C-alpha cells in the first residue's frame, strides 16, 4: 500500500492476485481507480498478477508498479483505458523494490537476485544497471535532489550509489542484520539534535500517566503495555523493520 | 690460473660457442694454454638476450650456462645471509614470512567478532535457533535428481551412513516443491538433493526444512569409499564429532551453522569418528575420518567415507524456490571473482 505524497488522502493498494486499486480515504467506499489485467498472452493464458511495489509519479495522476513477474507497468487513471499504459520487463526474477529518480522520467527497480536497473518510463527501455548487491533488494530510495540512491538488502550491507555521471558505488556500510527497509531522512545533522535528553523525561511522564490510568481501571484482564516507546527511542538509526507480506521471518 | 682451468673444462664447448662476451685477457689465456683451440671473442650488441639465438642447440647451451650461473649466485647469497644471521646471533632480525594468498587475503568487513552482541542476537533468532536450543533433533532426507546413475546412488548410500538419522529415497520424477510439504509433515528437518550430470554428481542442494534457508553448492572431486586409498573399515553407527574450520565471515557463519544442524548434538566419542568441513579460499572440503590417540600428542587417522569439495553458489531465504525465492547471497562471477585475494566465506 502506498500513500500519494501530493495528496495524503489518496492511497493505492496491490498485492498477489490483487490488482492495483486507488482509494480515496475521504471519498466513497469504492476505489477511485481499479486497474484491469492485461490481455491474455500469446498462449491465450491469463497473465497472473503480483504487484510488489507502487509509486506515484509526481505532477500527474500516473502510477508505476513493479511485479513479481519481472514487469514494470505504468497506469494512468486519467486515461479511459484501465489497462497499463506502458509495460516493460527486466530480468527473470521477481522485482521487489522500486524508487523514482529525481528527474522523474525513470525508475530504479531491484530484484531478488540483487540486480538494480534504471528503466526509462517514456520509452520503456533499460537505461543501465548497478552492480554490487549480492542478495535480494529489499529497500530502495533516491535522494530528492542529488543523483544518489540508497539500497539495502538481505546481504546485510547498506549501499549508496551514484546514478549518473558516472554510475557507480559511492559508499557501503556493513550492518549486521538482514535489512528490510530504509528511509532517507530530510533532516541535516540529525545526530546533533538534542533529542536524547528530552526523551527519557517524556517517556517517564507518559509511563506514569499510563500507570495511573491502569491503576484507576479495574483489573479486568491483566495485560502488559507493549514497550513501543522505549524501543523507538533507542534506535535513532534510519532502519525500520517493516513486516512484508509473504515473509516468514519472525 | 683459475680462469684457464675453467676455460679448459668448457674448451670443447668454446669451439662451438664462438660468440661469447669475453674479455681479451681470458682469450689470451686460452690461446696460450692449449694452442689447438682458438676461440674468437665477439662482443654482443647491447640489449641482446639469449632467446634471440636462432640455433636451438646453442641457445639451449647458453641457457643452461646462464642457469648454472644464477644458481651459483643464489647459493652464494644464501650462504652469506646465513653467516650474517649466525654472526648476529640473538640480534638477528626475524625471518621474513613468505606471502601466500591466504596471508594476503583482503580483510572482509563482515568477519564475525566472537563477542558481537548483534550477531549473537541474530543467531539466537534465526532458523537454526531451534536446533541449537536443543528443541529439535535432525532428521534428514537424502535424494537425487531424476534418474540417477550408479555413482550418485552409491554416494547417497555412503552419505546416509555418515550422517546419522538420514533416509535415502528415490526421486521418481517428483517436483521438489511437492516433496517439501510432505517432508515437513513427516518431521524432517533437512533435505539434501544431490544433482547429477553425465553420470557424476556435481551439485548439492541443502534445504533446512520448516522454513529455513536453502544453500546450493557446486560439488566436485567426489571420491567414493572404494576409490580412497588406505581407507579404514566401514563407519559404525556412532554419532560422529564435527569440525568446522575457517568459517569466519557472516555468510560463512550461516553456512557453518547449516552444516552443524545436520548432525545430532551429542557425539559419541566411543566411535572415534569425525566429520570435517574445512573451508579454504571459498572451497569447503568434506572429509570423514576415524582417529585414535596413540599417546598424549600423537594421533593416527584413517580416512573412511566419501570425500568431496563444495563451493557455494547461492543461499536462498526460505525453502527451495529458485524462481520466486529471495536470495540472501548469490555468487556473481563477474563481480565477485575479480580479485584473487578476496573470499566470501
TrEMBL record, chain A:
Basic residues bias locations: 237-250
A single cellular component GO annotation: nucleolus
GO biological process: ribosomal large subunit biogenesis
InterPro entries: WD40/YVTN_repeat-like_dom_sf, WD40_repeat_dom_sf, WD40_rpt, WDR74/Nsa1
Positions of the UniProt region annotated as Disordered: 188-210, 222-250
PANTHER family, per the entry: NOP SEVEN ASSOCIATED PROTEIN 1, WD REPEAT-CONTAINING PROTEIN 74
Protein's name in the database: WD repeat domain 74
TrEMBL record, chain B:
Compositional bias annotation for Basic residues: 1-16
Keyword Nucleus: no
Keyword rRNA processing carried by entry: yes
Alphabetical list of PROSITE patterns matching this protein: BRIX
Compositionally biased spans, kind Basic and acidic residues: 83-93
Brix domain boundaries: 138-321
Region entry Disordered, spans: 1-53, 65-101
Location in or out of the cell: Nucleus, Nucleolus
GO molecular function, one term: rRNA primary transcript binding
GO CC entries: nucleolus; preribosome, large subunit precursor
GO aspect biological process, one term: maturation of LSU-rRNA
Pfam family, any one: Brix
Lineage summary: Eukaryota, Metazoa, Chordata, Craniata, Vertebrata
Biological function: May be required for ribosome biogenesis.
Name this protein carries in UniProt: Ribosome production factor 1
Key words of the record: Ribosome biogenesis, rRNA processing
Amino acid at each position: 500500500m502506498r500513500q500519494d505524497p501530493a495528496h495524503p488522502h489518496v492511497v493505492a493498494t496491490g498485492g498477489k492476485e490483487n490488482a492495483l486499486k486507488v482509494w480515496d480515504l475521504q471519498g466513497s467506499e469504492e476505489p477511485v481507480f481499479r486497474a484491469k489485467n492485461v490481455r491474455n498472452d500469446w498462449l491465450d493464458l491469463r497473465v497472473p498478477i503480483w504487484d510488489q511495489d507502487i509509486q506515484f509519479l509526481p505532477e500527474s495522476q500516473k502510477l508505476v508498479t513493479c511485479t513479481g513477474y519481472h514487469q514494470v507497468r505504468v497506469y494512468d487513471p486519467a486515461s479511459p483505458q484501465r489497462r497499463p499504459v506502458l509495460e516493460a520487463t527486466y530480468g527473470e526474477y521477481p522485482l521487489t523494490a522500486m524508487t523514482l529518480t529525481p528527474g522523474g522520467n525513470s525508475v530504479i527497480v531491484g530484484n531478488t537476485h540483487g540486480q538494480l536497473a534504471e528503466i526509462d518510463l517514456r520509452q520503456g527501455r533499460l537505461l543501465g544497471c548497478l552492480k554490487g548487491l549480492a542478495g535480494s533488494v529489499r529497500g530502495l530510495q533516491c535522494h530528492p535532489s542529488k543523483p544518489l540512491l540508497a539500497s539495502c538488502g538481505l546481504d546485510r550491507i547498506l549501499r549508496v550509489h551514484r546514478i549518473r555521471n558516472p554510475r557507480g558505488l559511492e559508499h557501503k556500510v556493513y550492518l549486521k542484520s538482514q535489512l528490510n527497509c530504509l528511509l532517507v531522512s530530510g533532516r541535516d545533522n540529525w545526530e546533533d539534535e538534542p533529542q536524547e535528553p528530552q526523551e527519557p523525561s517524556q517517556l517517564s511522564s507518559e509511563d506514569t500517566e499510563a500507570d495511573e490510568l491502569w491503576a484507576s481501571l479495574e483489573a479486568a484482564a491483566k495485560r502488559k503495555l507493549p514497550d513501543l516507546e522505549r524501543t523507538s527511542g533507542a534506535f535513532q538509526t534510519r532502519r525500520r523493520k517493516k513486516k512484508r507480506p509473504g515473509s516468514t521471518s519472525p | 690460473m683459475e680462469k684457464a682451468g675453467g676455460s679448459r673444462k668448457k674448451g670443447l664447448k668454446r669451439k662451438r660457442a664462438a660468440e661469447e662476451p669475453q674479455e681479451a685477457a681470458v682469450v689470451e689465456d686460452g690461446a696460450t694454454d692449449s694452442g689447438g683451440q682458438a676461440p674468437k671473442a665477439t662482443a654482443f650488441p647491447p640489449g641482446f638476450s639469449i632467446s634471440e639465438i636462432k640455433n636451438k642447440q646453442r641457445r639451449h647451451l647458453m641457457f643452461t650456462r646462464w642457469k648454472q650461473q644464477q644458481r651459483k649466485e643464489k647459493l652464494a647469497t644464501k650462504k652469506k645471509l646465513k653467516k650474517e644471521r649466525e654472526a648476529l646471533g640473538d640480534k638477528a632480525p626475524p625471518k621474513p614470512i613468505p606471502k601466500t594468498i591466504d596471508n594476503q587475503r583482503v580483510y572482509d568487513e563482515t568477519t564475525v567478532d566472537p563477542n558481537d552482541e548483534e550477531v549473537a542476537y541474530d543467531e539466537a533468532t534465526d532458523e537454526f535457533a531451534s536446533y541449537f536450543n536443543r528443541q529439535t533433533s535432525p532428521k534428514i532426507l537424502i535424494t537425487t535428481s531424476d534418474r540417477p546413475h550408479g555413482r550418485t546412488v552409491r554416494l547417497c548410500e555412503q552419505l546416509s551412513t555418515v550422517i546419522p538419522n538420514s533416509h535415502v529415497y528415490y526421486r521418481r520424477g517428483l517436483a521438489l516443491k511437492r516433496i517439501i510439504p510432505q517432508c515437513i509433515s513427516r518431521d524432517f528437518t533437512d533435505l539434501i538433493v544431490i544433482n547429477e550430470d553425465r553420470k557424476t554428481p556435481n551439485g548439492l542442494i541443502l534445504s533446512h526444512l520448516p522454513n529455513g534457508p536453502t544453500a546450493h553448492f557446486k560439488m566436485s572431486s567426489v571420491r567414493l569409499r572404494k576409490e580412497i586409498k588406505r581407507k579404514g573399515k566401514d563407519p559404525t553407527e556412532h554419532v560422529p564429532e564435527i569440525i568446522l574450520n575457517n568459517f569466519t565471515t557472516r555468510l560463512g557463519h550461516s553456512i557453518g551453522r547449516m552444516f552443524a544442524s545436520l548432525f545430532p548434538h551429542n557425539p559419541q566419542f566411543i566411535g572415534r569418528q569425525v566429520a570435517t568441513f574445512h573451508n579454504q579460499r571459498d572451497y569447503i572440503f568434506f572429509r570423514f575420518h576415524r582417529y585414535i590417540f596413540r599417546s598424549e600428542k600423537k594421533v593416527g587417522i584413517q580416512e573412511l567415507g566419501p570425500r568431496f569439495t563444495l563451493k557455494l553458489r547461492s543461499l536462498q531465504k526460505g525453502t527451495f524456490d529458485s524462481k520466486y525465492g529471495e536470495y540472501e547471497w548469490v555468487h556473481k562471477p563477474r563481480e565477485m571473482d575479480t580479485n584473487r585475494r578476496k573470499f566470501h566465506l
